[in-house]
Amino acid sequence: MESLNLIKNDPWLAPYEAAIEGRYQYVIDKEKSLTNNGKLTLSEMASGYLYFGLHKTTKGWVFREWAPNATAIYLIGTFNGWQKDNKYKLKRKANGIWEIALTDAQMCHEDLFKLLVEWDGGSGERIPAWTRRVVQDEQSKIFSAQVWNPEKPYKFKNKRFKPKKSPLLIYECHIGMSTNEEKVGTYNEFRQNILPRVAKDGYNAIQIMAIQEHPYYGSFGYHVSSFFAASSRFGTPDELKQLIDEAHGMGIAVIMDIVHSHAVKNEGEGLGRFDGSYDQYFLSGERREHPAWDSLCFNYGKNEVLHFLLSNCKFWLEEYKFDGFRFDGVTSMLYYSHGLGEAFCNYGDYFNGHQDGDAIAYLTLANKLIHEVNPGAITIAEEVSGMPGLAAKVEDGGYGFDYRMAMNIPDYWIKTIKEKKDEDWHPSSIWWETTNRRADVLPRFQGTHCGSFLFKEAIKCIKEIHPGPCLMELNVNRNNKALQFYEHMGMRKLREGDFPIGNGYYMNDYIMGLDI
């Protein structure tokens, strides 16, 4: 094998050439395994959402689920009084797949339903893994899947949108927290009230948190239960589609926070023990539970799990027209330790056997798939260890992300604003923190919901001097190579200086809006 460009571009990686080439070859082999030795494209393979779950047919409905450990499965819901009924019993097919065909009259739009799954030694009610709509009862607080088949489904008006990336200006947001009222905000309210402000302020992208359904609202959407369901707390699937469509009409790309690093432990709402087994989707033994997040860790070495997650990526691109993803918790995925207790002081720390080759293969294939489905898509890795090649091309031996989210930079600003006086802000320190990166990584100042709250706490006192909203901006311009930090709307400019940016580094403009 000819030396990969990742190694050619960074001589310090030469001692680890065998490990890098081994990971690269493993990705190639895994793709062949998934695509029947190349007879399918990745995109054709990652179409499970078109087969599994509930689908309307010319004759009625068809429902399919993968549950290899199950001994019997029944559909229960409002259509049969939530009772076990042989008319709604699924038939077992090959490879652990279960199926049932229903007439039009047996299931209707907005019906609630679940699966009653039986296995040797037990049974349990489960929300289908591939369901596209989950709702919570206001009184009982119980979650159920819901049939969603409106007479007039939303039709996209902007069908050929291409994100603008030079530069990419991202506004990170959470639909539920986008209102000043003491309630959970909605897709419609965000579309009507926030999108125009985002466009007026000059952003060309929004990054939306907490889209995938999650039982606990306080998790900010990071304990996902239903991976194909847009959270019903904020509205209907059609209302989210309209939000994205109108954002595109304003020239705004829509990036989704996607959580494939772990899943909620809940068995009633999520995938935990879905078919009675502990390892259907997740690792077994000590690695099954995340030691810091109280959640379950996917088994990225299992082809069925990769099919599920890759299909999930394609689903959000195709069904909702998202323009890309910010992958949550990438550091946790890359290492058996989840990055906990590791220092990452030198290149050897990235090639010492602590890395999860299966997770690396999944992330690489996910990036390849996403850009196959939409060549203009945006992928961002939330990654703090500095893994070499994370934002390098797949064909060069990298993992294929477009950007790495440099979490240290917002943390640096939080610490600076919270703990230092103005006169203790040192331009040399700012320059080092924002430019000390390898050439294979595009550093990126990216706000987080945690950062937003900490920023608010840190500059709360400014409210008394400068009431009203403020806007923080960090700008490293690749044309004039100037590093600038501003406070807008009645607040003084704090720092401005000219600093050379070495090794081709630049930081995309980023603005965080804060209403204090």
Describe, in plain words, how this protein is organized in 3D.
- By secondary structure, the protein is α+β, with helices and mostly antiparallel strands.
- The chain contains 12 helices and 21 strands.
- The protein has a 6-stranded parallel β-sheet with strand order 10-11-14-15-16-17, with helices on one face. Strands 3, 6, 7, 8 and 9 form a 5-stranded antiparallel β-sheet that branches. Strands 1-2-5-4 form a 4-stranded antiparallel β-sheet, with no helix packed on it.
- Strand 1 and strand 2 (60-66) form a beta hairpin.
- Helix 6 (303-319) packs parallel to helix 8 (357-373).
- Mean pLDDT is 87; it is low at 440-516.
The residue fraction in helices comes out at 10-25%
What is the β-strand count? 21
Please work out how many helical segments DSSP would assign: 12
Oligomer: single chain
Catalogue the unreliable spans: 440-516
Secondary structure class reads alpha+beta
Strand order in the sheet with the most strands:
10-11-14-15-16-17
Strand content: 15-25%
Backbone CA Rg: 24 Å
Largest sheet: 6 strands, parallel
Give the terminus-to-terminus CA distance: 56 Å
Mean pLDDT: 87
Query: How would the global form be characterised?
Result: globular
What is this entry, summarized?
25% of the residues lie in helices and 21% in strands. The protein is globular, with a radius of gyration of 24 Å.
